[in-house]
Amino acid sequence: MARSGPESAPWSGLEFVLKDYRHTKIIATLGPATQSKEMLAKLIRSGVDILRLNMAHASHQWVADAMWFVREVSEEVGRHVAVMMDVKGPEIRTGVVESPIQLECGSEIEFYVDGVEASSDVNSVSINYEGLPAEVNIGDTVLVDSGLIQLKVTGKDDFRIRFEALTPGELTSRRHINLPGIQVKLPALTKKDKEDLREGVKAGIDFVALSFVRESDDVKILRRFLDSLGSPARIIAKIEDQAGVRNMEHIVREADGIMVARGDLGIEIDYHCLPLVQSQLIKTCHAEGKPVIIATHMLESMIHSPMPTRAEVSDVSHAIREQADAVMLSGETTTGAYPLESVQVFKDIIGSIEPSVSQALNERIVLKEPKAMMLRSASVLAQELGESGIVVFSRSGFLPYILGALRPHGIPIFAFTDDESIFRQLLLPWGVEPFLIEFSENPEETIQSAMDCLRRKEWVEVGTWLVVITNALADDKIIDTLQLRKLEADQDP
After folding, report:
1. Residue 489 half-sphere exposure, CB side, CA atoms within 13 Å?
2. 71 among known catalytic residues
């Protein structure tokens, strides 16, 4: 075995790699259940690759404290994780309701914009978006509180909207409003988002998840803002409404990755279409070589139960079989009673399902650059060798991301970089195991440093053949090369 202690990996062709190596990455959301230093250490040791900060319910002080804790604990346990800030984004909510409003089918209710008086002849509640009366039409359906309350627009003026309740329900304060099929003119970044991002960039976030991305320009706006802050953070576009689905191809091209945010998305589109849209988004990401994250309601029952439902197991298995780059936990690790057990369930499902996935390389991706084309050859060679791995060096992350997108099953991708930000960003793409080392001006010295690292950390057995993608000196010129190297025993006495 490669390491003392852990058993061999479930992969028949990966017996030289430690047990918890997996292609699919795990993202967990920090919250009251996991934000203590002790629980954070357990979460990182459990195998989480990326920690998510949900800014819908977070203060700036909490962000600063959480980032400090994450970095400190990572150093202590000897395992680093990336951090993703999920900005709240533009959302429409009802205002404060003094006492719950009981709605029956056929009941009338009015929404009015902040700053005007409510009508006196009907139950009324304020809304935080003054443009909504102009953007809905008579007959439109509006969903409140995750779709539990369905309302039909029956009348409106410049400041008020009158509805008929299509379903019974209880309306309380600050409920989220969804507008299926209705195009609204909300900004891509709110004032709160910008303030949160300034704090996150200062603290050193690695990824930004942008909520309710409707078009590629939304991503461009965020990128310009991050550039103005000097942040190298990569942008994950969350697809969660009909506009995002319609424009998915343009959004995928512009973003650094995609999150299939199934909570709001499952409300904004017909629920029975959600699996099809998820599959379409995964395929689009595969074609563009971009990472894709499947999120929301993955193991929802484990907020209260130590075991997942059979449907949840099947759902997660489907995401693994479709070769998503990562799966994400939300409430399971923020307020749930079984956060560590939820991570273990993810690992168990991944370990069981990944070996059954087709071994064929990703044929959808279009490789345009010669060096990128070389990566396909490297992947084929490594797979044909069997018990092998790919070693790649990168200062930008481009090559490891493309290698992950190619999906060389059963082959670990060992990515070496000398850039700390890139190192953490390499924790997202499928199958990539990143390492932070110093690069030498001599390519051969850098290769030997990487080999020493793999041998020292017992990632690979001595005698294993590795496909190495690197630069080499030839007649005083640096050329791209694909090499075959055998991991030799340490020559030090």
Report:
1. 3
2. no
What percentage of the chain reaches a pLDDT higher than 90? 84
Q: Pick the catalytic residue: 29, 34, 284, 296?
A: 296
Mean pLDDT of 460-474: 85
Quickly state the pLDDT bin for 170 (edges 50, 70, 90).
very high
User: Is 224 one of the catalytic residues?
Assistant: no
The one catalytic residue among 238, 262, 347, 376 = 238
**What's the CATH code, domain 92-178?**
2.40.33.10
**What are the residue ranges spanned by the domains of the chain?**
25-89+187-354, 92-178, 370-486
CB of 53 closer than 8 Å to CB of 84: yes
- Residue 185 is a catalytic residue: no
- pTM of the complete model beyond 0.85: yes
SS3 content of the chain, % helix, strand, coil (to 5): 35, 25, 40
Does CATH place domain 25-89+187-354 in 3.20.20.60?
A: yes
| Residue in 3, 71, 93, 220 annotated catalytic | 93
CATH of domain 370-486: 3.40.1380.20
Q: Residues of 86-119 as b/e, b for ≥16 C-beta within 10 angstroms? A: bbbbbbbebbebeeebebeeebbbbbbbeeeeee
State mean pLDDT over 382-409.
95
Nearest CA to 327 out of 305, 343, 307 is that of 343
